[in-house]
């Protein structure tokens, strides 16, 4: 082992290792995933303690290892404790952490995902229970856009025909489709006339605006179901937290 390096990170996940250690999955501010060992983290009085809980933002110092790096120092920036003390908040925040865990890699960096993840957790921590589903929807549609899957919502994604109130969404095409194209698209889902506009609003609005004025419950519910299918179609790994959140 040689060399150490600092990083600003978001804790995504922790896994038990041996009798007293943890493997922590981190997302750095550069958008790169880091997996590191927190030695002795499960021992009483450990210097890590709650500092490596999921949803925590921290400044860390890591030592390079052969397979996994080793966490040596942690300075908490934001605990997001509110998100771990409320069941509904935990479920919403877990969608954020699970998505980031599945789509980020060690070799590929996307700094905007770190910024989006932290901003969403901040918003969830201060939001009402009624606003959380809309914030989760906003996170998913913005996150998919950052992954190269920005949905086409104004015209048919297949033929380009203008769509004022589209009634179908193509999972494969990544956007709304006209009735003619939907008929030959096995991945097309029927949607309400309001959904495309709602998704466009989520894409273009700040999280603070969404928290203050969440989507109507029926549209919010539909958006969650369509986004779950959209994410599942393009992200190979199953996202259990999202599945559980949509089930309610």
Word description of this protein:
With 248 residues, the chain is of the alpha+beta class. The protein folds into 2 domains: 4-79, Nucleic acid-binding proteins (OB fold (Dihydrolipoamide Acetyltransferase, E2P)); 86-247, Up-down Bundle (de novo design (two linked rop proteins)), CATH 1.20.1440. 38% of the residues lie in helices and 21% in strands. It contains 8 helices and 8 strands. The protein has helices at 87-103, 111-126, 132-146, 179-183, 195-204, 207-212, 217-234, 240-247; strands at 4-17, 21-28, 33-38, 57-63, 69-78, 168-170, 175-176, 188-190. Strands 1-2-3-5-4 form a 5-stranded mixed barrel. Strands 7-6-8 form a 3-stranded antiparallel beta sheet. Strand 6 and strand 7 (175-176) form a beta hairpin. The longest helix has 18 residues, at 217-234.
Overall domain count: 2
User: According to CATH, what is the topology of the largest domain?
Assistant: de novo design (two linked rop proteins)
In CATH's first tier, which class of the largest domain applies? Mainly Alpha
**Class based on secondary structure composition and strand pairing:** alpha+beta
- The rough form would be described as elongated
Head-to-tail CA distance between termini? 45 Å
Strand runs, count? 8
H/E element order: EEEEEHHHEEHEHHHH
- CATH architecture assignment of the largest domain: Up-down Bundle
- As a whole number of angstroms, the C-alpha radius of gyration is 20 Å
Q: What is the arithmetic mean of pLDDT? A: 95
Q: Could you tell me the strand content as a percent range?
A: 15-25%
- Number of contiguous helices: 8
**Assembly context of the chains:** single chain
